[in-house]
Each structure stands twice: as C-alpha cells, then as structure tokens.
C-alpha cells in the first residue's frame, strides 16, 4: 500500500514507502526487520533500508579486478579485496579498474577513493 505524506516545505504530497514488517525470532525474542519484496531479514532497520535501496532486485554493479566476484555495494567489494586478495591500500590504478568494471556511471575516482579510505584505514597489524 502506497502512503502519501505532505512535504511541509513545498506543500506537495510525496509517496512514502510501506513500513517494514517487524518479526521476532522465536528463540531469542530479537526484533528483526523483513523486506516486503524478498523476505530477507535484518536486525537493524538501516540495514533493511540499504538492502531496499542498493540490493533488492538489482544486479551486482561492482566487479573484482582480480577474479569473477561481483558485488552490489562498493563496501562489499572492498571487503572482498581485503580478505581474499590481501589488498589493504588502493592506488589510483586500482580505482580506475574498479570504476571500469562498475556499471554505474555516477561514480568517480574521488567517490570510490573516499569510500575506500573510509573502509580500509590501515593494514592490520601482525599479532
């Protein structure tokens, strides 16, 4: 059901998404949020929002420059690069490879670079 809400600054009505379905895990009594389209559940409401915005029903946009892995979000590709390929710092050449493999024209090297800097802060120390 599509609800309308009034934008107070413009005085127009905008569509509002249906509220997420809230479920409770029978074993732990934890609240979870379920996607109304695919049924995938999340513990955090913002994770469900990200799922709806970037993942649900969408094809992966980011391809690994080293293997066949594809991700729907940049952060997932960055995690893959760090864990599987042991890439802890991203230079401009790798940024270009990531962008060339990305199907979204809206990203720039600067955008990817800032996302990568936020995700990969430093190489893990040897313990």
Give the arrangement of secondary structure elements:
Blueprint: E1 3-7, E2 12-16, E3 21-24, E4 31-34, E5 41-42, H1 45-55, E6 62-63, E7 70-71, H2 74-84, H3 92-101, H4 109-119
Antiparallel strand pairs: 1-2, 3-4, 4-5, 6-7
Helix pairs in contact: 2-4
Low-confidence stretches: 1-5, 105-110, 119-127
Helix segment tally:
4
Question: Sheet bearing the most strands, described?
Answer: 3 strands, antiparallel
Q: Which series of helices and strands comes N to C?
A: EEEEEHEEHHH
Portion in helices: 25-40%
Detailed description of the structure:
The radius of gyration is 19 Å and the shape is elongated. It is α+β, with helices and mostly antiparallel strands. It is built from 4 helices and 7 strands. The chain is 34% helix and 19% strand. The protein has 2 domains: 16-55, no CATH class; 62-119, no CATH class. Helix 2 (74-84) packs across helix 4 (109-119). Mean pLDDT is 72; it is low at 1-5, 105-110 and 119-127. A hairpin with a 4-residue loop joins strand 1 (3-7) and strand 2.
